[in-house]
Amino acid sequence: MSSGYFDREVIGRAEGEGSGKKRPQRVGDMIRNELALLLLRKMKDPRLKNVTIVHVGMSKDLRQANIYYSVFGSEDEARQAAAGLDSAKGFIRSHIARELGMRFTPQLTFRRDFSAVRQEEMERLFKELNELKEEEDAVPESF
Predict the structure, then answer these.
(1) Which of these, 26, 92, 89, lies nearest to 62 by C-alpha position?
(2) Are 52 and 81 within 8 A, CB to CB?
(3) Which residues fall within 8 angstroms of residue 128, CB to CB, at 6 or more apart?
(4) Beta bridge partners of residue 55, listed in sequence order
(5) Residues 67, 31: contact at Cβ < 8 Å?
(6) What residues contact 72, with CB distance under 8 A and at least 6 apart?
(7) Which pLDDT band, with edges at 50, 70 and 90, does 10 fall under?
(8) 18 pLDDT exceeds 60?
(9) In 3D, which of 51, 56, 55, 28 has the Cα closest to residue 38?
(10) 55: helix, strand or coil
(11) pLDDT value at residue 135
């Protein structure tokens, strides 16, 4: 025969084991989703119109959030977006605190994600290589 309290205590510990690694990821996903909605619905700054939140990395203690974003546009637009995110940091942080109800609201650090830029550059290089190969195949060989 077992007491209900003891069973809950044992189950709670068994389920909680190993979840410490996943919690920062879950919190980061929640912040990413909330920030994406905020950018779509509430932020009126025109500098942020081409900003996409790619990933949010959290520290283990959940006190620091590194927010990775991409900007579709020119380098000038990317600089303006960085300035817009920096100026809205306090508003974003207070919104996250209110919506997620965390014990501590993490410090926000915005970092540009260059993966889309690198992918575009790689696609351009592959296209150029393909065009060069087609030109070489089109030239007949002479002996």
Answers:
(1) 26
(2) no
(3) none
(4) 68
(5) yes
(6) 50, 52, 116
(7) very low
(8) no
(9) 51
(10) strand
(11) 81
**Tokens 């068994």, residue located:** 14
What string of DSSP letters covers 56-122?
EEE-TTS-EEEEEEEE-S-HHHHHHHHHHHHHTHHHHHHHHHHHH--SSPPEEEEEE--HHHHHHHH
DSSP secondary structure letter of residue 44: -
What's this model's pTM, rounded to 2 decimal places?
A: 0.69
Locate tokens 């030239």: which residue? Answer: 139
**Pairwise CA distance, residues 143 & 123, whole Å:** 35
- Structural domains for the chain: 12-114 (3.30.300.20)
54 SS3 class:
strand
Question: 122: which 2 tokens?
Answer: 């790689």
What is the percent of the chain with per-residue pLDDT over 70, rounded to a whole number? 83
Give, for 47, the enclosing helix (H) or strand (E).
none
**Residue written as token pair 């637009």:** 77
Report residue 74: phi and psi, to 5°: -75, 175
Contact indicator for 56, 68 with CB cutoff of 8 Å = yes
